[in-house]
Design goal:
Blueprint lengths: L4 H28 L3 H26 L6
Keywords: Membrane, Transmembrane, Transmembrane helix
Pfam families: DUF2768
InterPro entries: DUF2768
Length: about 70
């Protein structure tokens, strides 16, 4: 799937960024917000962590790149 090692690296950085964004949104939401906005941002956070998990799984199981 990922032929280029640099592409694989950037895709994994995107996954790490989504994980970080998810944590920041969750912490901010739990401390500062309530009501509908809280649950909508927590849903966005959950989607971010699920997408990043799928990306990490794809990058990990795609195996080593050819030299």
């Amino acid at each position: 799937m990922f032929e280029d090692p640099l592409l694989k690296m950037w895709v994994s950085f995107i996954a790490i960024g989504l994980m970080f964004l998810s944590v920041v949104i969750t912490i901010f939401t739990k401390e500062k917000l309530s009501g509908f906005l809280r649950y909508s941002l927590l849903t966005i956070s959950f989607v971010c962590i699920m997408v990043s998990g799928i990306i990490v799984m794809l990058v990990t199981f795609s195996g080593p790149v050819p030299d």
